[in-house]
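Before a colleague's protein record goes any further, I have to sign it off. Alongside the sequence sits a line of tokens, each denoting a local backbone shape. I want your independent view on whether this chain really folds as the tokens say. Where you disagree with what is written, explain briefly why. This is what I was given:
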Amino acid sequence: MPDNRKLRLAAVQMHSGSDWRVNLERAVARIVEAAEAGADVVALPENFACMGGEEARGRIAEKWESEISLALKAVAAAKGVLLLSGSCPVPSGDSLDPRPYNASVLWDRQGEVAAVYRKIHLFDVSIHDGSTYQESRYVRPGNRIVTVTLEGVTFGMSICYDLRFPELFRTLALQGAQVVFLPAAFTLATGKEHWLPLLQARAIENHFYVVAPAQFGLHADGRRTYGHSAIVDPWGMVLAQAPERECVIYAEFDLDYLHEIRSRIPVLQHRRPDLYS
């Protein structure tokens, strides 16, 4: 067991296509690569198993329990890492609303499920390049904010479009989050100006680490994603950023440094919630 005051964080950047088997094989290979490079925590991007259309996503949801989650569980246990599934369509189990959740699962080093987060904010937008997205047509929104403590470190969970809602990240901080996952498939049009500034803002506002694995490139459904996976520290420094290729990036989580930043500028203590409402 490593010193939980210092953990090696890894974020996997992918260019996922529509074949879930190929995507899963590549994801597992990158997890193994990260583990063999000494990573304690490995995070995959949003929709790591499929960046195809609505029909392809439906097939992924059907395969989640039977094949995809089992493969991730097995590699987490075999390599002894904390593993974030990024996100994947996961069945809701509701016959009245068959839309799957866009969900992240965090496995512990024994391959046991430690936490599940279902994306709260869905990407229903029109972008200045003419693109329109309606995630709510095929995804059911979650309704719970999720943090979990493993090995003395508290992790918060979020997915992609959640990044634009600072209330969520402040709530994660108030629940004790020290590392927040933000797996994403940010569009190229929005990512160029917004991706890094928003990641840094969330880290600076709340004084936690942000681990943001992302998709990049042109995908089978015609969507072009920005990439630039990043790991940001509590001071807002970009500790690692991915080039435009499939790869793994690394940075160190340092609990003592986090406590130092929070003690110097104790924004969480200086809040005035009596005035905000």
Observations:
- The radius of gyration is 18 Å.
- The CA atoms of residues 91 and 100 lie 4 Å apart.
